[in-house]
Design goal:
Strand order of the largest sheet: 7-8-10-9-13-17-14-15
Number of strands: 19
Distance between the termini: 32 Å
Radius of gyration: 23 Å
Strand content: 15-25%
Shape: elongated
Bound molecules: ligand BES, zinc ion
Structural class: alpha/beta
Largest sheet: 8 strands, mixed
């Protein structure tokens, strides 16, 4: 599906279907040719309300806010993909920042048209060949062709990176294991300025990564520490992303119940996200060095399994009492964060489907943001807003930190209280971030939004690619500020 820019009026372009966004319930705009029919059909232009009249699809849109545009455009494309239309056209809806809504629209078209059909016999390939964005604006604002094309290009890269991650997460756990993730990471080397390294058991042993190794013990598939680097010439700062790559989480000996285990193929969403961010950054040619570090293994059961009561030694020498083998993501991340600090990051961001408690705290749609620096948290969260991703800050405090005390080791892998579990998991990770990087570190718990049980917004059932757009928006914004 191509997204084209046409420097023409909406009526001058030929297409099978026209998308018209109905702003602020206003049916009196020149693009709305079916006012009477819409009124007859009871269409009021509520947000995301949709009505097809002849070959025009009308979608309610509250404002020219980016995410309103994204939601209504995705709604339109979702409907159109069920028709036989091959060509689609739409005008622009600029707000105070020209081009920004073209980017949002492009993202919506690509995100909204995603489908995972690998295991369906009756596949329904996308019939839409092209969507023409006509440079005639709802508010008659002039937008240059160059700005518009750049916006489409950026939106396309961001959405394709998100869809790349969705494919990784949606794949079944029988196929998506540490070695497959290794192959996918290696595949990123085809991008300019990207190299990758992969480490197995021996390296983890040499490095003293006893926590990561313990989680892998019952798996018949070896662990992998993956490290992909995008390093453009004259790179400015260094962003190091660390992803939880639990290709399946059974809970280990602290076994999950049947219902809670379903969807745990998505426990590698953090790793898919960090690889996707690197892909996006390389394609956008961002002026930063970007590292994606992945701890890939499954959390299985078997005679070799690590046990509650075991004590593990992490790479930085800290000892960890295992009280629950289902709190495994933090063990893998502990060693990966130690490794990540050795890369001397300017920004250190870990991404993980870490706790059910985060979903309890913030709901299904929101990423939990934790860290020591309010400035850093705010900076990411403001850009998350622009990207349409939802975030909520979860504050650390000294009392929650104490709940991780262990009588036999330096620290326990679970809190002694059943409350505040998302934050205590974040505080556990804090033990593995070296002092000089504390203020450069953010922990993103994506357990809620990473996997969609019931479709919402522009997300289909299955993987959503949570955390990718917010970080790409953040880096893009930073690069503009610093230019
Ligand atoms: N992968 C899970 C967290 C999770 C839960 C992700 C629901 C997505 C949806 C994680 O490894 C886990 O099992 N965490 C435990 C921690 C507990 C044992 C302290 C949890 O959240 O119950
Ligand atoms: Zn678990
Ligand atoms: Zn897990």
């Amino acid at each position: 599906m191509n997204i084209l820019i046409e420097n023409k009026k909406l009526t001058e372009v030929e297409a099978d279907i026209t998308i018209v966004l109905v702003l602020n319930k206003n049916l009196d705009h020149k693009w709305i040719e079916d006012k009477k029919e819409l009124e007859f059909l009871g269409f009021e232009g509520e947000s995301e309300e949709i009505c097809l009249v002849g070959k025009t699809i009308y979608v309610g849109c509250e404002s020219t806010d980016n995410d309103e545009i994204r939601l209504s455009s995705a709604k339109a494309i979702n409907h159109i993909k069920k028709t036989k239309a091959k060509t689609v056209k739409v005008g622009t809806y600029s707000n105070d920042c020209p081009g920004v809504n073209i980017k949002a629209m492009s993202e919506a078209f690509i995100l909204g048209s995603y489908a995972y059909e690998e295991y369906k016999s009756d596949k329904k390939p996308l019939k839409i060949d092209s969507i023409s964005i006509c440079l005639e604006d709802y508010n008659d604002v002039a937008i240059s062709e160059k700005t518009a094309k750049q916006a489409v290009e950026a939106g396309t890269i961001i959405a394709n990176a998100t869809n790349f991650a969705k494919d990784l997460v949606n794949e079944i756990p029988y196929k998506m294991h540490s070695l497959k993730l290794e192959e996918m990471a290696k595949g990123l080397e085809s991008l300019e300025n990207v190299t990758s390294k992969s480490f197995g058991k021996e390296f983890l042993e040499e490095q003293g990564m006893g926590a990561f190794l313990a989680v892998n013990r019952a798996s018949h598939i070896p662990p992998r520490l993956l490290h992909v680097i995008y390093k453009p010439k004259n790179a400015k700062e260094k962003f190091v992303f660390v992803g939880k790559g639990l290709t399946y989480d059974t809970g280990g000996l602290s076994l999950k119940t049947g219902g809670h285990m379903v969807s745990m193929k998505s426990d590698m969403s953090g790793s898919a996200a960090v690889l996707a961010i690197l892909k996006g950054a390389a394609e956008l040619k961002l002026p930063y060095e970007v590292h994606a570090i992945v701890g890939a293994t499954e959390n299985a059961i078997g005679p070799e399994a690590y046990k509650p009561d075991d004590v593990l030694i992490a790479k930085n020498g800290k000892t960890i009492e295992v009280r629950n083998t289902d709190a495994e993501g933090r063990l893998v991340l502990a060693d990966c964060l130690c490794y990540a600090c050795e890369q001397k990051p300017d920004y250190l961001i870990d991404m993980a489907t870490l706790t059910g408690a985060c979903v309890v705290a913030l709901g299904d749609y929101t990423t939990g943001v934790m860290g020591h620096s309010s400035e850093l948290k705010n900076s990411l969260m403001q850009n998350a807003d622009k990207s349409g991703e939802l975030t909520g800050a979860l504050p650390f405090n000294r009392y929650l930190k104490k709940l991780l005390k262990s009588s036999i080791a330096d620290i326990s892998n679970i809190s002694s209280s059943s409350y505040g579990g998302a934050i205590t998991a974040g505080l556990f990770l804090d033990n593995f971030v070296a002092d000089e990087y504390k203020d450069k570190w953010l922990h993103l718990d994506i357990a809620g939004p990473a996997y969609v049980e019931k479709e919402w917004g522009y997300n289909q059932c299955g993987a959503s690619g949570a955390g990718i757009r917010m970080n790409l928006y953040w880096m893009i914004e930073k690069s503009k500020e610093e230019a």
